Amino acid sequence: MPSSQPSTVGELKASGYKTIPVRNELRNNLVEKLRAGDELFPGIVGYGDTVVPQLVNAVLARHDFILLGLRGQAKSRILRQLVELMDPELPILAGSEVNDDPLNPISKHGRLLIDELGDEAAIEWIPREYRYVEKLATPDVTIADMLGDVDPIKAARGGHILADELTIHYGLLPRANRGVFAINELPDLAGKIQVGLFNILQEGDVQIKGYPIRLPLDVFMVFTANPEDYTARGKIITPLKDRIGGEIRTHYPLELETGIAITKQEAWVDREQVPVHIPAFLEEVVERVAFLARNDKRIDQRSGVSQRLPITLLENVVSSAERRAFLLGEDQVVPRLSDLFAALPSITGKMELEYEGELHGAEKIARELISGAAGLTFQARAGGSDVEEIVAYFEEGGALQLSEDATAAACVEAFQVVPSLLELVEWVGLAPSAASPGLQAAACELLLEALVAERRLSRVEGGYTRPAFEL
User: Fold this and answer.
1) pLDDT attached to residue 1
2) How far is CA 293 from CA 70, 224, 290, 312, 365, in A?
3) Is residue 4 part of a domain?
4) Are residues 205 and 187 in the same domain?
5) CB burial of residue 155 (10 Å; 0-12, 13-18, 19+)
6) Does 245 share its domain with 380?
């Protein structure tokens, strides 16, 4: 702690310090950031024109708010970044469990300390990270967890009667005094516990276990919820919803480029042992898998398809290519379409299926999503290209045998058997003539998978062959 900071209540008074309510503190710091043009929520991509303005409005209005959205929409990350809107440090009475304001303590411990020591009472400075308290709502949460309860051990050790306020063990809410208190998955909180939040949101106080005391807490409260939770696991009781200042809806990426940017930001793809080169078109295929899944009627859209799907899928795809590079001694990791099929668990584990989807099976749906994503990516990049010579080769009985563990050079050599395949890949710009064999192999697999999506080829175990049925 810098020596210039006050260390006693008297020194704090002499410094001219004035207590600022936490809502005003958040507002003031937000105003400074807005005037300076600072980035408000770094790392939150795709919300600049939708969610962020509503968040700014809520903080400027000093409103508690709830983030309402499906899983994997950065709700918790947004709440945790509210810490950056608080002052770097805050003075409290030393030893206080509820962050007592040295100039106006709310706990009996704090008041007794001031009565005994006066201006000589010690203070300490806590960093803003300590002023953020988060609780995941579960059905077993009790009112004692949230507000507090009698502590017989504290009473016995201190020689207090149980009616003494000093015997209280404070819950999470009092400990979040002069800070931000976040509750994740609010509908999972039992109704009687939600009732216990009424006074906090409206009057700003809390009562514990029927004690004749009043703790006027200074807390900024924020929540998250999944819309499906209203009916699936619980609901937010109406009086509580009425007391929450704003309901802010989050969403999945609205544009493919935004989704790619989020996935690239979050996915761990910079491996240490071998350089990794992910073709841009493969990143696009990975993202399109998620976009297609969010519009597939066989997948439960009320549950949502998390942004974690493309993130974990890309990481698993890189790992599949990395494993191949280690086994074959290649000096560069270049993922290709076959690696997406090797990463099916990253897709199947992220989907909740409707009845029709259960009939098809998660793996079959995942394979169709990959083929469909490859087809859309090829059309977006090289739609209208002449592929008739390639299709004719397979229709006349040609086949192409590929191994998932073959080197990139071996794959390129196999692709040379198919007329105009490599030339078309170069012509459409997916792999320039100077590209590495790994990039060429990846581009060829994209083209062939696009033809599978159009039902002009059939994908079989180990390669491609003529279509199983006519268009």
Assistant:
1) 40
2) 14, 24, 5, 15, 9
3) no
4) yes
5) middle
6) no
Q: DSSP letter string over 355-421?
A: HHHHHH-HHHHHHHHHHHHHHHHHHHHHTT---HHHHHHHHTT--EE--TTS-HHHHHHHHTTSTTH
> What's the rounded Cα separation, in Å, for the pair 305 and 314?
15
Instruction: Give the separation between CA 305 and CA 303, rounded to whole angstroms.
Output: 7
Q: Are residues 204 and 323 in the same domain?
A: no
Rounded distance between C-alpha atoms, residue 444 and residue 390, angstroms: 11
Distance CA 376, CA 379 (A): 5
Reported as a single tens digit per residue, the pLDDT across 99-123 is 999 999 988 888 889 999 999 999 9
Greatest CA separation for the chain: 97
The alpha carbon of residue 361 and the mean position of all alpha carbons in its chain are separated, in whole angstroms, by 27
Are residues 85 and 29 in contact, defined by beta-carbon separation less than 8 angstroms?
yes
Sign of CA dihedral 155, 209, 64, 221: positive
Asked if the structure places residue 286 within a domain, the reply is yes
Pairing of strands 458-460, 463-465: antiparallel
Task: Name the residue range of residue 340's domain.
Answer: 256-465
Residue whose pair of structure tokens reads 């040379």 in the numeric block: 416
CA 168 to chain centre: 36
Last residue within a domain, chosen from 230, 249, 268: 249
* pLDDT averaged over every residue in the chain: 88
Q: Is residue 1 part of a domain?
A: no
Whether residue 416 is predicted with pLDDT greater than 80 in this model: the reply is yes
Say which range, 178-182, 224-228, 281-285, 304-308, has the weakest mean pLDDT: 224-228
Please say which residue of 231, 249, 267 terminates a domain: 249
Instruction: Tell me what pLDDT residue 347 has.
Output: 96
Q: What is the pLDDT of residues 78-99, one digit of tens each?
A: 999 999 999 999 999 998 989 9
State the average pLDDT over residues 323-343.
Answer: 92
Residue 107 tokens, joined: 């706990």
Residue 389 Cα distances to 308, 396, 421, 450, 455, angstroms: 39, 11, 9, 15, 16
pLDDT at position 470: 40
pLDDT at 231 over 50: no
Verify that 240 and 276 share a domain, yes or no.
Answer: no
pLDDT of residue 4: 79
Residue with tokens 């105009």, as numbered in its chain: 420
256-266 and 308-328 helices, crossing angle to 10°: 60
